[in-house]
């Protein structure tokens, strides 16, 4: 496919997606807000969320400026500019998504109140969520378009010159090769700078949002449910509004920027791999190089267009079924299937001209000797690899559902264990979480190995791209959850009739399941994106082989050998990192939650008539506590994971950092799965008791109390630690890739000659 | 050093150690048992422990026979015989150690009762423990001696022939080389067969013992402390005797066979590495080969002799100080320092003849070109590497103490968190455990890297040998703990005067600290032994390089490349394995504990006058429940971890298994540290509240109740899961090493041509 055509497709998809997002934004916003009380509460949530995100972005802005200056000084000014573009794109997506979520929540409640229709209410909630989803893909692609337009021109130029000079002297070709090599290295840095921009927003949004939402949630639960025995979302609880704000800043904005980062990481790691592989290690091969560089972008564009159709498919129908889960699944499946179909067209036009096994580069070498990029069944190979990614993403989500939904045995058993008290509830939940790590890893393994067999390392990158290509829909479904949750809270706090709460509860219950699926998907996609990024990292620091032997064994030296002591030690320390990071986050949440507990206790004690429902609590102080706690506590872990690989790199060199990345990625995948599934199961185990699933037990009984302990323990695990681990591994591999050129040679160990 | 001299040293040390063990055994056994009631209780514990271990060994015998037959058929009959020798040695050590522990416990109580002297009581307890410690080293070395005597003769023979023929034709040398190569490969299998024998005993002893002890403990706590609110070890609790039996089968026999396995693994991995490195990959170099093969054995013999002196140093003094912890530390430090001194002598006589940097092999090649074995500072290099191991072992133990003792901030903070209820107790403990992973990993990393810089991969093996060389003393100190714990229980159940309990409590408190240190040490040493074993594994399956290029780059191909998809997928699945295994173990404990809870509840309800202390409970049924539960539940996890690498090997090949080993080892190290430290801190946090450390809180209060929940959750983590993970990684690497020759070529993927 022609460069102009691909970039055209990208910008059309990006603008199309954003336009549809804008349309949905305004069509939600123009709906009625409902009673005065509803407006008041919604406004309080909105003001709180806006205040927090404004503060958060101020802190991020400072960090981003520092990072940008460092990038400009140490790496290149183009990397710095790309970094800023990435940060702006990710920041905008999160901001818009959160904004509409705080408009949509009350409108969902009001639709339930006025229409009494599940179908109509679902539409409003999903429309709200779709803005976040479409913005994620749209903004990410728009940014990539700009970066390619501004900095990527060299690719085409060199290509043209290369072909032109092909027949001329060998010396001239060598000159071209050198030029290509230098340009490739520079452009790699620029692209990873863009990814880093997205990462930096994501790390702050996820960690900050995660601490915010769980400090409020735990604070509300620890006093409200456990001590005062008042129900969730009860207006008498001073922390409820903060809890609702938390849903918006954590589960909408945080989630959006998290998946935006995975999306960008997956796309660009494919592109970067192609650049590194060909420009630096194989020399020449520019036709195929071009196809491989642009395939991820075109595929992503096709994915976004599919998602627009998939999302719209839900709104064009007048009346939806009574099963919201089925409807949301429908949108996801339509998006995924269309992505596969359109993706086949993209793959055909990208690769069919290169034939099957006998791919040759511009110097006439048969490419099949390079084991790492072999299109075993022609253009179909990368397409099937991407399709494997799509399917693996869905399966991993389903596994998360199996372990955390109370429709299945694991969570049912967990709920039954609550009868024996809190100790066995915790014990059982821990074991559930631990056991749940295996299946997703097996699926991930099959996806990696299968896609590798099809087209080598590029195939693995293609699988990552496939898994994330329909992210617009998955994020839309995910963001629908907290909006429905908020809607329920507003209904409760506005004293609306029980029927309204029934409708929102039904939506919320589905939201819990979609959240669990979304979490499984998030860690699966983060893992694949990171592994793909890691490969690029190893390519990036391995010196280009001598020209003399470039046709054979050129890729032999590209390795990360675990029994090299630097790598081994890096892997061990790296594996400890996610554990330490998780511990720090749990502490941060506990610290903020403790302040919240004190404040809630104080209000219950000092404000007369509060528990009797005669006066309203002071919501604002609680919002401030959550806000300040999150802003204060997020800095150390966030800066820690940005700085760690770079500092290690300048001291111990590139191989050590390679080991750190491997160790950290592997251990973070396990911890994230463990935290997500244990936390989800504790949450739903509690709900199972509430709906009467455990014989003889009900809300407020001993078993329920034990289950609440499990839920409280699980909350920070599933909503703060797990999601933040996704980002930890992505940002570490991204920043390593950006800075490796600087520390590969200039590090302390090298200086000391060790 | 001469072969005969080394083997002589080994047998002298082994028999000396065992003789001293026998002396201590009988000098403990001849002491008085005390009152009739004390004798009754002690006898009940002894009968229960003997019954369990007899059953356990029956199961192990069946598994061992199956494994031995398979080894004889698939690998070699010598590997099968060595396997049986290993199993017998490990089994005997565990059996003798447990036997004396069940004699020593009541004699410790009686010494406290009759002498009222802390010093005398400490001596009896430590004397009991020293039998286990000395048997571990003594039996292991005795077995190695036998294996070398029977199967290792070829080493010397080839060496002699080799030197004789050195000047003759090249063809003859090639013949020698081939012979050497074949012999080396065979002997590697035999030695790892011996290690596997020790592993198989260890896995059953640790898992079985761990499930037994925690099912009884949790069962006793869940009903006794939490529901009936009666103190620990109260004779009214039907599960107390089972709890005391558990200490003997889990914390004495289980621990002993665990560390015996690490010890053997560390020694033999050094030896095997030398054989693989020289016999197969470097060819020739037989003088140095010999020195490198025998150095680990000689060093271990020196270590055992040091430990005999270190242990005896405590008994030769008439009156000990009032600080048992100081005395035990003294014995440990004397052993460690003497090991370093004697080790220097061993290193000098082993390596000084090879000079410094210009080591040459028998073909006249300069050995310094082989980056992986370079004695940078002559014979001092391997000695310093071993010393680094010794120091690292002690430091890792101290770090575990820091995180789990209530003398330090982490556990104090955890105890304070209990004031906020059980949810925050759990949350804080989880974060403590997670954060505690980093420091030991950094120490491990420094040890690995430092020892590598000194003498390459062989240096890493030397560090592992160093860390484990004084294991006789560390196990003695460890085994002293459960004996004192039992002694306290017997005092309580025999209604002895409070002064007796005061003395045993003081010993027990120290035992808790030494247990935590021991756990840290166990995982640190297991990690080092496994990593060293893993290197041997990679050497073993890498085909020997062509003769033509053996002087240069011969070791280049020895690599485990993480970005190879088979390795990467293996590492991901492998990392999930310890999580799954841990989850299975927790479930097993919970299942057995639940049955115990039911039985205890039944007895409280049905036996009239029991809670009033008028009649005694039915201890025997509880012992049977623990016993049957453990025997039933241990099979699946134990067989699972033996079979997993072999099955993977025959399906996916050697590289995949290499990845599995890396992933599993790294993630198991983290999980084991997490479980050990979180569990230890919860336990001591509870104790801190009991001794009045948290202001305004005491035993029986709300904070204490919350702390008991933490303790109950932590119990299976620290005493079943953590220790079993040590074995998981060791047995996986051992069995992979034994079987790799069989599956390296013959696996499904190879057959399918993928």
Query: How many E-type strands of chain A?
Result: 0
User: What's the order of the H and E elements of chain A?
Assistant: HHHHHHHHHHHHHHHHHHHH
Task: Indicate the percent of residues in helices of chain A.
Answer: over 70%
What's the overall geometry of chain A?
A: globular
Biggest β-sheet of chain A, characterized?
A: none
Report the mean per-residue pLDDT of chain A as an integer: 86
Q: Radius of gyration of chain A, Cα only, in angstroms?
A: 26 Å
Task: Flag low-confidence runs of chain A.
Answer: 162-171, 356-372, 547-554
Beta-strand fraction estimate of chain A: under 5%
Oligomer: homodimer
Largest chain-chain contact? A-B, 81 and 81 residues
Number of helices of chain A: 20
- CA distance, first residue to last residue of chain A: 48 Å
Judged by helices, strands and strand pairing, the structural class of chain A is mainly alpha
């Amino acid at each position: 496919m022609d460069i102009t055509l691909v970039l055209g497709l990208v910008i059309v998809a990006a603008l199309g997606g954003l336009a549809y997002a804008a349309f949905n934004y305004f069509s939600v916003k123009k709906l009625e807000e409902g009673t005065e009380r509803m407006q008041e509460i919604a406004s309080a949530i909105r003001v709180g969320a806006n205040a927090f995100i404004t503060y958060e972005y101020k802190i991020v802005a400072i960090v981003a400026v520092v990072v940008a200056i460092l990038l400009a000084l140490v790496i290149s000014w183009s990397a710095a500019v790309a970094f800023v573009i990435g940060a702006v794109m990710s920041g905008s997506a999160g901001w818009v998504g959160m904004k509409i979520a705080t408009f949509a929540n009350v409108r969902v409640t009001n639709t339930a109140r006025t229409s009494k229709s599940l179908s109509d209410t679902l539409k409003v909630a999903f429309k709200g969520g779709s803005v976040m989803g479409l913005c994620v893909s749209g903004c990410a692609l728009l940014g990539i378009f700009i970066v390619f337009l501004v900095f990527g021109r060299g690719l085409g130029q060199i290509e043209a010159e290369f072909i032109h000079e092909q027949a001329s002297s060998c010396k001239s070709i060598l000159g071209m090769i050198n030029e290509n090599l230098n340009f490739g290295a520079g452009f790699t840095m620029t692209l990873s700078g863009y990814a880093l921009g997205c990462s930096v927003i994501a790390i702050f949004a996820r960690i900050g949002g995660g601490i915010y939402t769980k400090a409020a949630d735990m604070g509300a639960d620890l006093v409200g449910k456990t001590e005062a025995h008042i129900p969730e979302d009860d207006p008498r609880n001073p922390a409820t509004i903060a809890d609702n704000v938390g849903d918006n800043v954590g589960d909408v904005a945080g989630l959006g920027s998290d998946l935006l980062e995975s999306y960008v990481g997956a796309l660009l790691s494919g592109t970067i791999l192609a650049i590194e592989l060909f420009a630096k290690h194989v020399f020449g091969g520019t036709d195929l190089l071009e196809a491989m560089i642009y395939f991820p972008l075109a595929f992503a564009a096709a994915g976004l267009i599919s998602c627009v159709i998939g999302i719209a498919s839900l709104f064009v129908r007048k009346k939806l079924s009574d099963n919201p889960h089925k409807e949301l699944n429908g949108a996801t499946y339509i998006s995924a299937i269309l992505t596969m179909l359109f993706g086949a067209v993209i793959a055909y036009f990208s690769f069919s001209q290169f034939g099957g096994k006998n791919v040759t580069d511009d110097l006439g070498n048969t490419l099949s000797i390079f084991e790492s990029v072999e299109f075993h069944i022609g253009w179909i190979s990368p397409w099937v690899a991407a399709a494997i990614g799509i399917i693996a993403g869905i399966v991993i989500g389903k596994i998360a559902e199996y372990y955390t939904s109370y429709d299945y045995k694991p969570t049912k058993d967990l709920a039954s264990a609550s009868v024996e008290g809190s100790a066995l509830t915790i014990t059982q939940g821990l074991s559930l979480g631990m056991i749940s790590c295996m299946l997703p890893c097996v699926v991930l393994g099959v996806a990696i190995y299968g896609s590798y067999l099809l087209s080598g390392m590029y195939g693995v990158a293609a699988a990552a791209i496939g898994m994330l290509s329909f992210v617009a829909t998955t994020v839309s479904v995910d963001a629908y959850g907290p909006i429905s949750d908020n809607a329920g809270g507003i209904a409760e706090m506005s004293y609306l009739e029980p029927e309204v709460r029934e409708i929102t509860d039904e939506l919320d219950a589905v939201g819990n399941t979609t959240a669990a699926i979304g979490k499984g998907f998030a860690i699966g996609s983060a893992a694949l994106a990171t592994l793909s990024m890691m490969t690029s990292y190893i390519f990036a620091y391995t010196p280009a082989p001598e020209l003399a032997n470039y046709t054979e064994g050129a890729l032999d030296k590209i390795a990360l050998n675990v029994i090299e002591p630097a790598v081994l030690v890096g892997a061990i320390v790296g594996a400890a990192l996610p554990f330490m990071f998780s511990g720090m986050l749990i502490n941060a949440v506990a610290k903020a939650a403790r302040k919240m507990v004190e404040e809630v206790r104080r209000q219950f004690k000092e404000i007369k008539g509060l528990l009797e429902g005669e006066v309203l609590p002071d919501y604002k102080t609680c919002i401030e506590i959550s806000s300040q706690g999150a802003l204060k506590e997020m800095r150390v872990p966030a800066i820690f994971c940005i700085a760690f690989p770079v500092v290690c790199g300048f001291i111990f060199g590139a191989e050590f950092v390679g080991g750190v990345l491997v160790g950290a990625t592997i251990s973070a995948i396990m911890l994230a799965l463990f935290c997500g599934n244990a936390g989800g199961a504790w949450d739903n185990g509690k709900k199972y008791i509430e709906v009467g699933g455990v014989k003889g037990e009900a809300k407020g009984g001993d078993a329920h109390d034990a289950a609440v302990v499990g839920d409280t323990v699980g909350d920070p695990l599933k909503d703060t630690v797990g999601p933040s681990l996704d980002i930890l591994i992505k940002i570490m591999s991204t920043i390593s890739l950006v800075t490796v050129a600087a520390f590969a040679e200039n590090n302390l160990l090298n200086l000391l000659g060790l």
